[in-house]
Records
---
Amino acid sequence: EPGRLMRAGLALIVLGHGSLVLGAIVHGSVLRHVAGARLAVTPEYAVANVVSVGSGLLSIAVGIVAILVSHNLSRAALHWTLLSVSLLNCLLSTACSLGLALAIALTVHSRGMHLVMGCNSSALPTDARAAIVTNDCPFNTTRIYDTALALWFPSMVLAAAEAVLSGRCSLVALIFRGIGPCARSYGKEQV
C-alpha cells in the first residue's frame, strides 16, 4: 500500500538522521580525542564510524525515494531506483551494525584499552574505567570509554532498523515490478 511505503520512507528518514547525528557525536566526542593523542585510533573504530555516517545518509536517500514511489506508483524508473538504493542501504546498514558490534566487543573485551592506545602513560591502569586523574593523557579516559559505549549501542540498533526497513522497501520495489511471491496477488488487486 502506498501509505505503508510512505511511513517506511518517513521512518527511514528519521532513522537516517539519528544515525548521522550519533556518528557525528561519536567522532566529535570520542574518536577526535583518541586520534588526536598520537593518531593511534584503531581502524575498526574509524571504519565503523564512517560506515555509520554513510549508512545514515543513504537511509535518508532511500526514505526520500520511497516517499516519491508512494506518490508515483506507475513510474518504473522510480521502482528500479528504489530497488537499487534500498538493496545497497540494506547491505551497508547490515555491515554497519556488524562493525559497531565488533567495535563494542573489542572495547568491552579489552576493557577500553583499545580506545586509549594513543595515550602513552605509565600511570594508565589496565582498565580504562579505573583511570586516575594524574595521567598524561590529554583526555579523560573514563569519559571516552563510557561515551563510546553509550553511543555505539543506540547507533547499532538504528543501523539494524535501517537494514530491516531497507529490505522491506526493496521487496516492495520487486513487487511493484512484478517479481516475487506477492507480485501476482498485487497485480490482481490493481486490476
---
Amino acid sequence: MCFGRCARCVGYKLLILALLSIVANVLLYFPNGETRFASEHHLSRYVECLHGILGGGFLVLIPAAVFIGLHNDDCCGCFGHEDCGKSCVMLSSVLAAFVGILGSGYCIIISALGLSHGPYCFTYLERNWIYPFTDSSGGYLFEYNKWSECQEPQNIVQWNVTLFSILLVLGGIEFILCFIQIISGILGGLCGLCCSHEEV
C-alpha cells in the first residue's frame, strides 16, 4: 500500500469539497439571487462567520495542496537513501491535516448553529427583522407550516436550511478525510522509518 498515493487521492477530494463549500457560503449571502439583503445587513450572523469560505474553504485548501503535492510512490525510504525524506514528508502531512480538521470543524459548528437558530428575517407578526425560530432549538426544521412567518427574504428558511445543511455535510466529509489522512500520514511515516532501518 502506498500512503503517498492515498494522500493525493484525499487531496483531490478535499480540493473539490473546499470549492463547493466556498460556493455554498457565497450563495448564503444572496438569498434568491438578490444582493440588497447583504448590503442592508439583513443576513443571519452565522452567514457572516464565513465558515464555508474560511473554515471549509481556504483552511481545507491548505492540506489539499499539501496532499496533492506529495510524490511518495515508495513507502520505504529515509536517512540517506534514494527516497530520503519521504517518511518525514508523510509525518509532516499530519500537521496539514490538523489544519483541515480545524477548518472543517469550524464549518460544522457554525453550520449546526445556523440551522439551530434559524434565519434572520422580516416577520408579519413582529413587523421587524428578528430570529423567529431561535427559541425552537432547531424544532422549526420539522414545522414547515411556521416557515411562512418569514416574509423577507422570500423562501429564506428553505434557502438557509438547504445551504447550511450542505455546508454541514461538506464539513463532515472534510473532517473525516482529514482524520483519515492523519492516520495514514502517521502509518506512512512509521512505515518509511521501519523500512529504512531494515535496509540499513
